[in-house]
């Protein structure tokens, strides 16, 4: 059997995608994302900037390593930590996501 090259760009790294809720008329979808915007740090920045309407779930995968996972809890914990470090409330677009994920994770508050 011939092996085919991966059709997934950047398949040698972890990729993060967001399932976004666009409301009752449009429903949920995995929005198109540029290849450069699928890394963890860019995803976190875009979430903090409110670039998603109402994130529902975040998945991460690495095609070259052959794994995928639900990263919602992990990302929610990171978002809460970043907000605590900045002394800011989470953006309104993240309220539902943070209520549903990561509520059992302790955060480290900065020492001044």
Q: Could you give the distance between the termini?
A: 61 Å
Given helix and strand content, the structural type is: alpha+beta
Query: What share of the residues does DSSP label as strand, in percent?
Result: 15-25%
The mean pLDDT is 85
Entry keywords:
single chain; 112 residues; alpha+beta; globular
Task: Describe this protein's structure.
There is one protein chain. The chain is α+β, with helices and mostly antiparallel strands and 112 residues long. It has one domain. It has three helices and four strands, in the order E-E-H-E-E-H-H. It has a four-stranded antiparallel sheet with strand order 2-1-3-4, covered by helices on one side. The radius of gyration is 16 Å and the shape is globular.
SSE layout and pairing:
Layout: E1 15-21, E2 28-29, H1 40-48, E3 55-62, E4 67-70, H2 72-86, H3 95-100
Antiparallel strand pairs: 1-2, 1-3, 3-4
Question: Short summary of the structure?
Answer:
With 112 residues, the chain is of the alpha+beta class. Helix content is 27%, strand content 19%. Strand 3 and strand 4 form a beta hairpin.
């Amino acid at each position: 059997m011939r092996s085919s090259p991966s059709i997934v760009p950047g398949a040698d790294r972890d990729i993060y995608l967001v399932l976004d809720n666009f409301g009752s008329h449009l429903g949920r979808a995995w929005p198109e994302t540029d290849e450069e915007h699928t890394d963890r740090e860019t995803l976190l920045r875009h979430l903090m900037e409110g670039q998603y309407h109402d994130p529902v779930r975040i998945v991460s995968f690495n095609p070259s390593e052959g794994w995928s996972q639900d990263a919602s809890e992990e990302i929610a914990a990171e978002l809460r930590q970043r907000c605590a470090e900045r002394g800011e409330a989470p953006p309104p677009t993240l309220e539902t996501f943070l209520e549903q994920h990561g509520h059992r994770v302790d955060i480290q508050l900065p020492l001044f």
